[in-house]
Amino acid sequence: MGRSGRAIGIAGLIVAIWLVGAAGITAQEETFAVQGRVVNGTQEGGEVSGLTVVLHRDTENGVLTREAVTDEAGSYSFDEIPLDTDSLYGVSVVYQGAIYAEAVEQSAGGVPGVTLTVYEAVSEAGVLKALVVSTLLSQVDGATQTVRALDIVRLVNDSDRTYVPGADPMQLLRFGLPPGAFDLSVDTDLLGVDVIQVETGFGLVGGVPPGEHEVLYSYAFPYSGEATSFVKSLLYGATELRVLAPEGMLSLSSPELGEGQAVEIGGRSYTLVEGSSLPPGSRISVELAGLPAPTLGGRVESTLGKMRLEVAAPAGLGAFMAVLIAFALWRRAVQRRAESVDRP
User: Fold this and answer.
1) How far apart are CA 74 and CA 46, in angstroms?
2) In 3D, which of 277, 193, 278, 185 has the Cα closest to residue 231?
3) 110-141: per-residue pLDDT in tens?
4) With contact defined as beta carbons under 8 Å apart, do 275 and 256 qualify?
5) Which pLDDT tens digit goes with each residue over 218-250?
6) 10: helix, coil or strand?
């Protein structure tokens, strides 16, 4: 090979090296930064320095985490976070036994001012109240002699402290269930809570920060004969209590609340019993009548029936939410009509 050939070869090698380097620069991962503060929302609350803030990156391969410690002002920061539109980001901190978290919207320009508000802990359940307790008896299975129910409880903590259960099991966030209840499914907007079984229902282990929160749960319970009853234990009282069932499925009444009344919600007819301003610790009996007896074929298929109940639970939760929203809109419309009639 002559000089010209060697020169061309060297030039080509230089170009190739430059292209590879340029490709490496182009392929370099874009990053962003997150800065924020931890603040104490309780009046005259404690210091928030030295707390561990965790950055969560939820990817298709799992959750990746990084940690930072707050300074004397409660500030924290994370740098060089991969910019990935397929991932979800958030920050969290644990303070006095409760978890607090905020979502983080990724941005190529950085994300300033992500504030995590924490609160002092209190273990007195008196800070909790139930605004609305609703129960929908959504299905009766004569083959297995079970009733399917779905409940939603809207709790409020109107203090400036987070309710954190103490060591006493009676301090758990507790909810009652009918005797023999099974197939329990629980959903809530409370962060980091665990569900445990207690003697007469279930409890949630975790904090309840100030504000409104919802606990949604479905379950089934057995009956025998053509009638049964159960008790709604309102540990946190209820500003409003509602128990509904599709009209024609069963008869619904309560010694404390009276006979069921017919209402129409979203184009469907329901039987409703309701009460209001019920104090903490109230116990309301609900009586069900006209329940179907098992047939011969139903006894044979009882096992399959239980399987269907388990599969139907998630779909039932969504249907229940739709019914409750429709009920709230219907109730609001009735109140508005009543107010308009009362006006001079």
Assistant:
1) 11
2) 278
3) 778 899 999 999 999 999 999 999 999 999 99
4) yes
5) 999 999 989 999 999 999 999 999 999 999 999
6) helix
